[in-house]
């Protein structure tokens, strides 16, 4: 009897990225790849909401992203079309590349929807 | 040396529009943002800043620096043990330069921040006034229309539940009670 020991293939991630997660407004995970701490993916929607409120106080409409700047790694929270994206990456990774990758994910999900 | 002069190197950085300094509980210490951002803005902004910082600290991990990007602007927040510094930038700021200048600021201006008084914002703001007006008009309507507050009527106390009447088989008798002996008990 053969056992299926193959692991699920990891999807492409830009260099320096530890992982990302996509959640809906309630915090339920839609897609997850690599390593993202549970608390970040659960609270990404909340963080995005707070970021949006901060922009509202300053008179800015288009909230784009929030980066939590840590010593060894950064966390990125982004909202695209009512989906919330959370990513963790090394501080030395190219932020623009990470951000662009998440945006492309957002476009993919928009097309699929 | 004033707080403004301590902030000057940061304000001189390219893309920096202004800075502000909040106490750890979100109250305004000083505001060097462009003139449209009056101190009144900080009633909301201060509370929202502290909510965000506390939320991240409690639910994710302790984080001292944040960069929040909007369409054309971004807000850099730096939390220290004595204060919260905010830097409003247009476009993409040079983050490395921003971090250095804020770190230097925190090192040199520590005593000035501790000595600076917290600005008391006016208690009666427009949103609160509107809210009270709404309540007042609502009560006035109630007075005019003589709306009586709903009084809870005392419902009759529940009596013993009456069993549905049964006429029995062909309507000749009642349902047999198990405890009482049937009348036609031939065994006496």
Describe the structure.
The complex is a heterodimer of chains A (113) and B (188). Chain A is α+β, with helices and mostly antiparallel strands and 113 residues long. Chain A has a single domain (17-112), classed as Dynein light chain 2a, cytoplasmic (Beta-Lactamase). In chain A, 35% of the residues lie in helices and 32% in strands. Chain A contains 2 helices and 5 strands, in the order ββαβββα. In chain A, strands 2-1-5-4-3 form a 5-stranded antiparallel β-sheet, sandwiched between helices. In chain A, a hairpin with a 2-residue loop joins strand 4 and strand 5. The N and C termini of chain A lie far apart (40 Å). The model of chain A has no long low-confidence stretch (mean pLDDT 88). By secondary structure, chain B is α+β, with helices and mostly antiparallel strands. Chain B has a domain at 3-119: Beta-Lactamase, CATH 3.30.450. Chain B is 35% helix and 18% strand. Chain B is built from 5 helices and 5 strands; from the N terminus they run H-E-E-H-E-E-E-H-H-H. Chain B has helices at residues 3-11, 42-59, 95-108, 110-115, 126-144, and strands at 16-23, 28-32, 65-70, 73-79, 83-90. In chain B, strands 2-1-5-4-3 form a 5-stranded antiparallel β-sheet, with helices on both faces. In chain B, a hairpin with a 4-residue loop joins strand 1 and strand 2. In chain B, helix 1 packs antiparallel against helix 3 (95-108). Chain B is globular. Mean pLDDT of chain B is 76; it is low at 124-155, 159-165 and 167-176. The A-B interface holds A 37, 39-40, 42-43, 46-47, 50-51, 53-55, 57-70, 75 and B 36-37, 41, 44-45, 48-49, 51-52, 55-56, 59-61, 63-73, 75, 88.
Describe the structure concisely:
The complex is a heterodimer of chains A (113) and B (188). Chain A is α+β, with helices and mostly antiparallel strands and 113 residues long.
